[in-house]
Amino acid sequence: MAISRLKEQIKKIPDRPGIYIFKNLKNKPLYIGKALNLKNRLKFYLKITDGRLKRMLLEAEGVDIIVTESEIEALILESQYIKKYHPDFNVMLRDDKQYGFVGFSNDKFHKIFITHQPAKNKETDFIGPFTDIRALKITLRLLRKIFPYCTCKQLHNNYCLNYHIGKCPGFCCLKQSIINSLQLTTYRKNIKAVKDILSGEKSSLTKNLEKEMRNFSNKQEYEKSLELQHKIEKFKKIFLNARIINNDREVMIYHNSSNVLKSLQKFLNLPSLPRRIEAYDIANIQGQFAVGAMIVFTDRKPDKNKYRKFKIKNTKQNNRDYNLYSYYDRDINTKSKLDEKNDDTAMLKEVITRRLKHPEWPYPNLIIVDGGKAQLSTALKTITNYRLLITIIALTKNEKHTTHKVTLENKEIVLSKLPTELRNFLIGINSEAHRFAISYYRNVHRKKSLQLNF
Length: 454
Known about the structure:
The protein is of the alpha+beta class. It has three domains: 3-69, GIY-YIG endonuclease; 100-238, no CATH class; 257-452, Nucleotidyltransferase, domain 5, CATH 3.30.420.340. It has helices at 3-11, 38-44, 52-59, 71-85, 88-93, 133-146, 161-164, 181-198, 202-218, 222-238, 257-268, 324-328, 335-341, 344-356, 373-385, 420-452, and strands at 18-23, 29-35, 62-67, 100-105, 112-115, 124-130, 252-253, 276-285, 288-298, 301-302, 308-311, 366-370, 391-397, 403-407, 412-414. It is globular. The N and C termini lie far apart (60 Å).
């Protein structure tokens, strides 16, 4: 494979986690690898001058990639593809670095463990190979918090440390506990869940858990239903389904990104796909060092070069030096003035107004603001003043400060009623806007504090 051609392909590859597949003229996989950052990882191959990887590059005709949402997901997908295609150079390189396998013992109280040399017997099932033992251990550690399982090699009298911290059901301590059939069934479900995840069956597992949660709810067993709901939420935080994200004649980048945009278009009844989405958030503490942030998503991906920061100008708190004593020495009569100063809607209006004074920035198909009806109303009025027709929604948080519902012009919709992918997409945008705003606020606060100390 010509280095010049590989360079051209790398230009089109995103800075995202995923797997890459070098193929020969017959479209047969030669080598499969994973990366936290696909672009950076493939740049590594430009520097190879000798060895087996150099031979692989000479045989390769092109490289395909599949983008995932996390390194953990890439690890699992890589294992599936290596097992499916048995690429020649993965087999050759296996001698240089021992791959890992996850073992599931078939005794009464199944145990899970990692090994480099899977034994061929009926007493243990193995999933693998996994090329990155570090990432595999992290994956199992995260899963164990959600689906506890035993790792002790032998039964013993005392409860192990993992039992005390909630990572082990205590079945390895049989002599001190009586295990009933319900506990055993629950434990076996945990083992099956881990096995399904490592086998790439996350979607079916999620559906089964959600079905079980609904069944508990229908039976009015709300405590069990809530427990399962929390488990599902934790599970979704670390695992999202692999996404196929673009398709090009030279670089195969598979994607279903348009699916979530089509879903969003249908949900909001938009005239076209929302290819450019802008989200706004305000960060301040009682008016101090108030800032605003605008983030941009283009074709479902964060477009960080187009993010913008705004230091709020029309807040009295921002126009005077911060005085610790005066801050705490306020009387009740100042409350109305303080409310006025700390009016988030006024700050939001300022940020959107300043943004609209830049017509050289393409107008979005959709604007998302953080807040409720007041913030939505402010944004709508501001846009109307500029005679623009842009759909606006607000993402509203609950008392736990978790994004809970979508506020539209004429109604509110609880996020849990939306399709999973669309719900996660909207929550992700809201979280990114909040992260960017808070990051800017902290920088402003730190600089101002340093100035006041001198």
